[in-house]
Amino acid sequence: MIPKIDPTKTAAWQALKAHFDDVCEVHMNDLFQSDPNRFERFSMVERNVFMDFSKHRITEDTLDLLQALATECHVKEGIQAMFNGELLNETEGRAVLHTALRNTTDRPVYLKSVDVMTDVRRVKAKMRAFSERVIAGDHRGFTGKTIASIVNIGIGGSDLGPCMVVEALKHYGNHLDVRFASNVDANHIVEVCKDLDPETTLFVIASKTFTTQETMTNAHSARAWLVDSIGSEDCVKNHVVAVSTNQEAAVDFGIDPENLFEFWDWVGGRFSLWGAVGLSIMLAIGPDRFEQLLEGAELVDQQVKDKGTLSMPGILALLSLWYGNFFHAETHAILPYDQYLHRLPAFLQQADMESNGKSVDRNGNKIAYQTGAVIWGEPGTNGQHAFYQLIHQGTALIPSDFIAFAVPLHRLSDHHDKLLANCFAQSMAMMQGKSAEAVKSEMRKEGSTEEEMNRLHPYRTFEGNIPSTTLLIEKLTPRSLGQLIAIYEHKILIEGLILNVYSFDQWGVELGKQLAKPILSEIAGSEDSTSMDQSTKGLLRILRNFKLDAT
Predict the structure, then answer these.
(1) pLDDT per position as a tens digit, 27-83
(2) Rounded to an integer, what is the distance from CA 64 to the centroid of its chain?
(3) How many CB atoms lie within 10 A of CB 143?
(4) How far is CA 380 from the centre of its chain?
């Protein structure tokens, strides 16, 4: 396996600390004024994706030192280890091969000397055949009606990825109404299903083990809804399919083994939309466009293989580490200027925070540096009227990623021009700011008195110097969306390799699940709460009282 190096012990890290002292107070306005070629120097293009990272508090020396850090941390070897099928997820003894799911070539991908592409192609062909039958109306419901609605039941990676992609590619959707239910709160599945016809609804249950509490609770409710409405338990075979590794449990549920779509333990949940977990995507946009999604991601895979940390994901990873560990920025905003991408920030929250949100390194030692950032955001321009105030004038440094498309998917060019103008203006404002002198000059032209200018100008002054990256993509297509997602996936991998964490396990989600079981038993009245803490006991007591009052 690759060396497990504490990045803070490297020569490059120490050099970065000294370099930070030299550049931390430098304003980006001065960097642009001193270098007329800064935009060209700090930007790159890959196919139809352009990345501008000139609006960052960096110099060429900064990038050189960050690249040196990546070299000392053996990032190149780590990237190769992932593609080679090595057990990169050591705490679970698993390889990390979601990239194999989007390998559209004849190239073999080996895991323990076995080419996994045989199984990948088999499952993909099965997905295609099933999707084509549903879309064409050949797969019918129990009463003979064609399927009109799809409900994906999953949670985490089995929901966030497919849901985000289906929403992002709605423009390319077919006649099927594809919806998603994830929360164990019954309000979610009730609202999703309340206007659907059970005779024309197909459920896709996505659960690797077929035991996930939230997913199986919703699945059993969906099954009861179907059986009660249609009047026969045999209807399950027509109306429910599964994405799982647990064939026995799926068959016991009533699912036809032919309608079981497999995935493997070398596919992490939050990186799984490229395979069987993406069945709802394939149903929504069709197999050919699903294949284009994979092709876009594969382009980025090849770029990362070829360029490593000089690729777009590599630059994003280095910048994230720079702000997190030297400027101590704790959050990062994802700001897509396209309403179709409204679920992208939530998807990247899981992808990034569940991956690199760790406090123990790969040597088992407690970490004394910052790992994952808090990822958040909303589409522009809505966010401008909500939280941009904090980014512009708050006390926290918040690096941001602006994502926009040059060509719209509609004919309302006036809307799109205004959208892009706002996108570019916001990143410009974050960088440039507005000096006290500029504010006073503006107020003077408005007719303000000297007293008003002196009193009010601090409130209208912007320090600027807020870093941002702009990803400008030609057009939102299945292929370009695949590129965008893969850029962030590899950014997470590269940053995790430098940070010396296991990016592909998620033990942090398990403790709450374990503790929920005895609490559920206590709520049901079958377990004594004496072993629980005082607060939890108190909450259970109040819960019982509320229930009694309600009856």
Answers:
(1) 999 999 999 999 999 999 999 999 999 999 999 999 999 999 999 999 999 999 999
(2) 28
(3) 13
(4) 18
Residues involved in catalysis: 354, 385, 513
Q: How far apart are CA 203 and CA 445, in angstroms?
A: 63
Contact 403, 334 (CB under 8 A): yes
Using pLDDT thresholds of 50, 70 and 90, give the confidence band for residue 138.
very high
Which of 153, 143, 135, 282 is closest to 200 using CA atoms? 143
d(CA 312, CA 309): 8
Partner residues linked to 111 by β-bridges? 114
Q: Which of 245, 311, 342, 264 is nearest to 488 (CA)?
A: 311
- Whether 211 contacts 246, CB under 8 Å: yes
Angle between helices 478-499 and 160-168 (to 10 degrees): 140
- The answer to whether 66 and 19 are in contact (CB under 8 A) is no
Locate 337 and state its tokens.
């200027």
The number of angstroms, rounded, from the C-alpha of 550 to the middle of its chain's C-alpha atoms is 40
Please choose, from the candidates 266, 353, 341, 325, the residue with its C-alpha nearest in 3D space to the C-alpha of residue 69: 325
Rounded Cα distance between 154 and 206, Å, is 5
CB of 283 within 8 A of CB of 290? no
Between helix 534-550 and helix 510-523 the angle, nearest 10°, is 40
Dist CA 2 CA 361 (whole Å): 13
Angle, CA 453 vertex, CA 450 and CA 454 arms, to 5°: 85
Mean pLDDT of 484-513: 95
User: Of the candidates 311, 210, 222, 321, which has an alpha carbon nearest to the alpha carbon of residue 260?
Assistant: 210
DSSP 456-485: HGGGG-B-----EEEEEEEE--HHHHHHHH
Q: Is the dihedral of CA 402, 269, 159, 238 positive or negative?
A: positive
Other beta carbons within 10 Å of 144: 8
